[in-house]
Design a protein that fits this description.
The chain is built from 7 helices and 12 strands. 22% of the residues lie in helices and 23% in strands. By secondary structure, the protein is α/β, with parallel strands linked by helices.
């Protein structure tokens, strides 16, 4: 089994919640994951001091592989010249020198694609054809039994609530391309509330028997939660099994003294299309621990 902790939208700066950041760090240490995914918006206004604070928090993480990707808040909004000519200067210096990356651990290949498009979009993002080519080439080198995952800050499927956020332009074609690559899982943020489902929830897709598991994290360490997660902080715990994905959505509760499991989701993993027994479908729900801050 492979264990992934997935958080997003840390928003170091005015909306950042230092207490939530400490609780999230304690949860990471307690869950002992094989991989940590942080899907963008490390800062609020892409200021040097915000990136310095984010880097200081990242340096306190336990030694494990970390997948990162920029968000739209990681490029300047009001500093127009910097936005046009050097939009990722601070992100490259403080978070990661590359914008599109591949991370491999035994049994897992994760491709992170930069969806922030500072010259074309203020809030929404883009995925270009050359990035799809990059992902395809990375997955061509993946092991035959690897879970194939994408990390992108902006969402490809709208959350099923009243907020009505627009997904990435061309989302349906992008998801069809991911299906053709054998992608099992897409992780993202941006919405400031969780959505855990399947790409077929929103689009018919090329393969209507399978689709792709969509796992969006809410804001993990800021006060900018939306909809049912208003003023809440959340993250996802993902267990990768040979035949399934188990996703446990964690939310902060004062009564629990920290983050605690809030909902459980289990999806059959390609090439499986269904579960052969109720025990498989039940997944990890009966065994998921409650995480508390020390």
């Amino acid at each position: 089994m492979i264990t992934i902790v997935h958080g997003s939208d840390l928003h170091f700066g005015e909306p950042h919640d230092p207490q939530a950041a400490e609780m999230f760090l304690a949860s990471i240490e307690g869950l002992d994951p094989d991989l940590l995914v942080l899907s963008g918006d490390f800062t609020q206004r892409a200021k040097t001091r915000e990136f310095e604070a984010a880097r200081g928090w990242l340096d306190r993480l336990p030694p494990l592989p970390v997948v990162v990707t920029p968000g739209n808040h990681d490029v300047p909004l009001y500093r127009v010249a910097e936005r046009i000519f050097r939009p990722f200067q601070n992100y490259r210096r403080w978070i990661h020198p590359e914008l599109d990356t591949v991370t491999r651990i035994p049994g897992l290949t994760v491709v992170a694609l930069n969806t922030a498009a500072p010259r074309r979009a203020i809030v929404n993002g883009r995925i270009d054809s050359h990035q799809l080519d990059f992902a395809r080439s990375c997955f061509e080198e993946a092991g035959p039994d690897d879970l194939r995952a994408i990390v992108a800050h902006h969402h490809l499927v709208p959350a099923p609530d009243y907020e009505g956020d627009n997904p990435l332009p061309g989302a349906r074609k992008i998801l069809d391309a991911f299906e053709s690559m054998g992608v099992d899982l897409v992780m993202g943020g941006h919405l400031h509330r969780a959505y855990i489902g399947n790409s077929l929830d929103a689009y018919p897709g090329a393969d209507r028997d399978r689709g792709i598991a969509i796992v969006q994290s809410g804001t993990t360490t800021s006060g900018r939660g939306r909809a049912r997660e208003r003023e809440k902080t959340t993250f996802n715990l993902i267990h990768v099994h040979e035949d399934r994905l188990d996703i446990v959505h964690h939310m902060h509760f004062r009564e629990a003294g920290g983050f605690a499991p809030f909902s459980f989701h289990t999806f059959p993993r390609h090439p499986h299309r269904f579960f052969s027994s109720p025990s498989q479908a039940r997944g990890q729900a009966d065994r998921a621990p409650v995480e508390r801050s020390p």
